[in-house]
Amino acid sequence: MSSPRPLRDRAVDDLRFIRQTMERAGSFTAVPGWGQVAVGATALAAAFLAARQPSVELWLATWLGEAIVALVIGGWTMVRKAYAVNDPILSGPGRRFWLSFIPPMAVGGLLTVALYRAGHWHALPGAWLLLYGTGFVTGGAFSVRIVPVMGLCFMLAGAVALFGPAAWGNWVLAAGFGGLHIVFGGIIARRYGG
Question: Fewer Cβ neighbours under 10 Å: the N or C end of the chain?
Answer without folding.
Answer: N
